[in-house]
Amino acid sequence: MDSQNTYWTDRALLEWQVELGVTDAILDTPVDRYALETVKPAPNAATPEKPVVAPEVVKAPDVDAAALARTAAQTAADLDALSGAMQAFDHCELKKGARSFVFSDGNPAARVMIVGEAPGREEDRAGRPFVGRAGQLLDRMLEAIQMGRAADNAAQAVYITNVLPWRPPSNRTPDASEIAMMLPFLERHIALADPEIVVLMGNTPCQALLGRTGITRMRGEWVDVLGKPCLPMFHPAYLLRNPIAKREAWADLLSLKARLRG
Question: Taking Cα atoms as reference points, which of 225, 201, 228 lies closest to residue 213?
């Protein structure tokens, strides 16, 4: 093709682009802007926007939170150290939405250690386990067998904790991954407190420490957990919803009292 034909061809193409609305020619070759990320200039900056190649996204390595929890728990030499290790543990998302860290209540030297599920709204506000309606019922249940969290005498005292130290949103049931993540801390908690008897209140602690649920079938049946006699019982919150089950709960309390006397 001679130069004259090239000129007229290029001019025709240019006029066609002008008719389409093209006003400026920026680059000699087309740019795939779907593959670019635009960097906006700072306010009042005189330089125009410049296309830059988007940085490569590097996926963060997966973290074995349960393994990290086990390491942190095993390094705790006493209950205060364990509390500090749990508060410093940042791999549980529940921590971000909770108001308070809820560790324990009662006498750590007690013969009986009660394990519940997780803090509720009142517990999250107070920073103590079992202080809402369910906790008040628990206190009355324990008083009926001459026991309580406020007792100075270890023989009559109880020590109380939960599977999770942070409140799940809307008081939902903890999921399996949350339970597995925090289980090393719970196991270490029991080892450091070293109670004679462990009471598991509700399905969640049974799932955590026994690997099974079905509290209506399991309650009242003595089992072993971490080398200690353990009694699954109805959670007081369940008794508030199902008062008819208080008869079975009373039978379990009498069984606990008899075991302590033995």
Answer: 201
